[in-house]
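Weekly modeling sync, notes
Attendees: S.R. (lead), two postdocs, one rotation student

Agenda item 3: backlog of single-chain predictions. S.R. asked that every request posted to the team notebook include the full sequence so nobody has to chase files. The rotation student volunteered to paste the first one in as an example of the format we agreed on. Action items at the bottom.

Example entry:
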Amino acid sequence: MSPEVTIRSLAGMVIAVDGPAAAGKGTLARRLAAELGLPYLDTGLLYRATGRRLLDAGADPRDPVAAEAAARALAPADLERPDLRGPEADRAASAVAAIPAVRAALLDWQRDFGRTHGAVLDGRDIGTVVFPEAPVKLFVTAKDEERARRRWLELQGRGVTAELPAVLADLRARDAQDASRATAPLKPAADALLLDTTTLDAEAAFRTARALVAERLGL
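Predicted structure, as returned to the notebook:
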């Protein structure tokens, strides 16, 4: 199917969109969900909200007992908080995501969401752990410097003061932690379709992803 043709709604389908921070996977996943008529879930918000609960309580996000309790106490309202983005939230999210008990606590939540009506889910282990059977898996990435620039612009737009070199350092540190954790490390699924967005704007990335999805599904 040509990428210029609208993809028909595919009720019940799960599409996994994984990749590192600021690669553009969130924007892409939202647009794919709208195009396919599917619900959308940013699974990273679950870990961000867990980390934020710990920070609010003055607890260490690396504490497995406290982190598991925070994950199991999550409520839908936690995902609507306005303070789930930024370097502090990024580091806390990465820390709690490395804890197996936290991932186990949130796994059923994610699977229930996807299995109810189908969904487009973005995260770091959707195609490898949460929905390894998903018929379409995208792994979205971009060069470190470009991802740091995007994150820096995002922070500037929210009025958050940050230096670009510090943003790059934080991003690389989070990448290293996400890729090296023992449980569900960040990596492409063996059958994932790779999409490098370094030189693509949001519209071009969406058109490319839509074409990849259509080709994989034989549409």
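Discussion: group reviewed the output briefly. The chain is about 55% helix and 10% strand.
Action items: rotation student to repeat for the remaining queue; S.R. to check formatting next week.
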